[in-house]
């Protein structure tokens, strides 16, 4: 797919295409005097009728699709409502464009003409268009012998012509890099546990490191043992496939800062011996979201080249019940020397992250950000469209919330301290227990993790349970894994 500028209809790369979708995003105020460019004069009457008959009012989320029969090039017109002008922003436009590009494909258009005059005040059109195009083109269909879109819609768009703003290749490229890193993460998350396990995660990371010039070190069972990574080893014990810790590094010359991302990489979470009931086990292939997101972030960073040293630590294991599995009552020792009494093997994410976070602390970075599909409690508290943010530093909190505003991924700041919940971390026989009371489960998990972060490091924990997977497509999201968190972290890094 190529994104091009368009000055007029006769432009050689536009006329003669007979499968063009014309897309206009219109806010409520602009409906009455919406004007098409001169070269589409013959279509203006369709727009006028739509507005005067109130078929289209510009309300947020409203969509009008008009088939066009009497124009040689244009096959469809689409109008998308942006709602009130003063509430419009780049996130709404990104979503609207994703809907629009998908609609264009469904209607067999291979080319799109985007009328960008009205939206250029709300966003960087080049960047947002490229990102929306890349994200909306993604479908997880590699396991279907007959693709949904076979013979019915084009697999992808050929060209997007933008009218009304100047084309800027750097901005387009930034949007493409953002999109392709999210698509990379989504695609890996979507692959089920039969085809991705910790060893395969390591192979994928190795391939990425090779392609993108990243440093990589993989901890196998022997190395995990010699580094005293008792959390990852315990969680991985029940599986037929051994656990892995993967350490990636992007190292520019003279970096201004050092940041470590840590991801929970449970390639399948059955719960272990504290096995999950069936309807809670479904979709637990997505329990590797944190680790896959970190891979996506490293991939983008290698392209975007900030002057910041960035590490990615992926703590990977498969949580399975078996004769070898770790048990309730077991006491294990984490990389930083602290002992943990297991009272629930389904609270496994915090155990692999504990090793990951203490290794991250050894690197003495300025900032650690971990991400994980950690607690059902967080999903219960915040729903499917807001992730939990636990952070011990005001500056880092502000920076992440600012990035989140730009990314459109919503985060809600949660308490990272609570003396009563902290009380329930105590174990009679070890330094800590891994599971507390039902109430405040997400906060318990965050406080548990804080025990493995060195005291002087600014640290944020992103709980992605609930936002990691969508059953239906919505805006930029396709069915399945969302890679929620990648965009915010990239914005955060690029704003530093
Ligand atoms: N992977 C789950 C959390 C989860 C739940 C992610 C729903 C996405 C959607 C995690 O390992 C888990 O099982 N957490 C338990 C913790 C409990 C045993 C303290 C939970 O939330 O029930
Ligand atoms: Mn679990
Ligand atoms: Zn889990």
Q: Which ligands does the model contain, each kind named once?
A: ligand BES, manganese (II) ion, zinc ion
What's the multimeric state? single chain
Instruction: Please state the average pLDDT score.
Output: 95
Strand content: 15-25%
**Would you identify the regions where 5 or more consecutive residues have pLDDT less than 50?**
none
Compute the number of helices: 15
The largest sheet has its strands arranged as 7-8-10-9-13-17-14-15
Rounded radius of gyration (Å) = 24 Å
- Please provide the count of β strands: 19
The assigned structural class equals alpha/beta
- Major β-sheet annotation: 8 strands, mixed
Helix content: 25-40%
Describe the structure.
- The chain is an alpha/beta fold and about 500 residues long.
- The chain has 15 helices and 19 strands.
- A hairpin with a 5-residue loop joins strand 11 and strand 12.
- Helix 2 packs across helix 3, helix 7 runs antiparallel to helix 10 and helix 12 crosses helix 15.
- The chain is elongated.
- The site of manganese (II) ion has 4 residues, from loops.
Relevant terms:
496 residues; alpha/beta; 8-stranded mixed sheet; 19 strands; 34% helix; 21% strand; elongated; binds ligand BES; binds manganese (II) ion; binds zinc ion
Overview in brief:
By secondary structure, the chain is α/β, with parallel strands linked by helices. It has helices at about 45-50, 90-105, 125-135, 170-190, 200-210, 220-225, 230-235, 280, 290-305, 350-360, 375-380, 395-405, 420-425, 440-450, 485-495, and strands at about 1-5, 20-25, 65, 75-85, 110-115, 160-165, 215-220, 245-250, 260-270, 310-320, 330-335, 340, 365-370, 385-390, 410-415, 430-435, 460-465, 470, 480. The protein is built from 15 helices and 19 strands.
């Amino acid at each position: 797919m190529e994104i091009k500028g368009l000055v007029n209809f006769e432009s050689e790369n536009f006329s003669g295409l007979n499968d063009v979708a014309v897309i206009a995003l219109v806010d409520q105020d602009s409906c009455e005097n919406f004007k098409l460019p001169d070269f589409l004069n013959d279509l203006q009457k369709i727009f006028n009728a739509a507005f005067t008959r109130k078929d289209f009012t510009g309300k947020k989320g409203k969509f009008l699709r008009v088939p066009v029969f009497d124009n040689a090039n244009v096959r469809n017109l689409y109008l998308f409502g942006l709602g009130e002008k003063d509430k419009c922003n780049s996130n709404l436009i990104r979503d609207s464009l994703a809907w629009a590009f998908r609609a264009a494909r469904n209607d067999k258009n291979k080319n799109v003409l985007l009328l960008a005059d009205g939206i250029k005040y709300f966003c960087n059109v080049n960047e947002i268009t490229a990102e929306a195009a890349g994200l909306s083109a993604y479908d997880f269909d590699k396991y279907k012998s007959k693709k949904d879109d076979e013979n019915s819609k084009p697999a992808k768009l050929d060209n997007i012509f933008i009218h009304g703003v100047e084309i800027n290749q750097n901005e387009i490229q930034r949007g493409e890099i953002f999109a392709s890193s999210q698509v990379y993460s989504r695609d890996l998350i979507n692959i089920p546990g039969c085809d991705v396990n910790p060893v395969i995660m390591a192979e994928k990371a190795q391939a990425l490191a090779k392609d993108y010039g990243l440093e990589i070190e993989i901890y196998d069972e022997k190395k995990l043992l010699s580094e005293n990574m008792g959390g990852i080893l315990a969680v991985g014990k029940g599986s037929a496939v051994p656990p892995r810790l993967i350490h990636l590094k992007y190292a520019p010359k003279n970096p201004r800062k050092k940041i470590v991302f840590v991801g929970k990489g449970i390639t399948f979470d059955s719960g272990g011996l504290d096995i999950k009931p069936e309807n809670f086990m479904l979709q637990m292939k997505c329990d590797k979201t944190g680790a896959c997101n970190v891979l996506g972030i490293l991939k983008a960073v290698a392209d975007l080249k900030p002057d910041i040293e960035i590490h990615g630590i992926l703590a990977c294991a498969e949580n399975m019940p078996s004769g070898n599995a770790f048990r309730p009552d077991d006491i294990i020792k984490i990389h930083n020397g602290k002992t943990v009494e297991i009272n629930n093997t389904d609270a496994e994410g915090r155990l692999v992250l504990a090793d990951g976070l203490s290794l991250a602390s050894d690197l003495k970075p300025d900032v650690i950000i971990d991400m994980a599909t950690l607690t059902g409690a967080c999903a219960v508290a915040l729903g499917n469209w807001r992730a939990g943010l636990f952070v011990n530093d005001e500056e880092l909190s502000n920076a992440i919330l600012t990035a989140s505003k730009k990314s459109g991924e919503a985060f809600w700041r949660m308490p990272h301290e609570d003396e009563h919940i902290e009380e329930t971390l105590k174990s009679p026989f070890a330094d800590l227990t891994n599971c507390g009371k039902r109430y405040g489960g997400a906060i318990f998990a965050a406080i548990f993790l804080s025990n493995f972060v060195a005291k002087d490091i600014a640290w944020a924990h992103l709980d992605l349970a609930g936002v990691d997977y969508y059953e239906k497509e919505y805006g930029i999201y396709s069915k399945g894994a969302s890679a929620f968190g990648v965009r915010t972290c990239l914005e955060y890094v690029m704003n530093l």
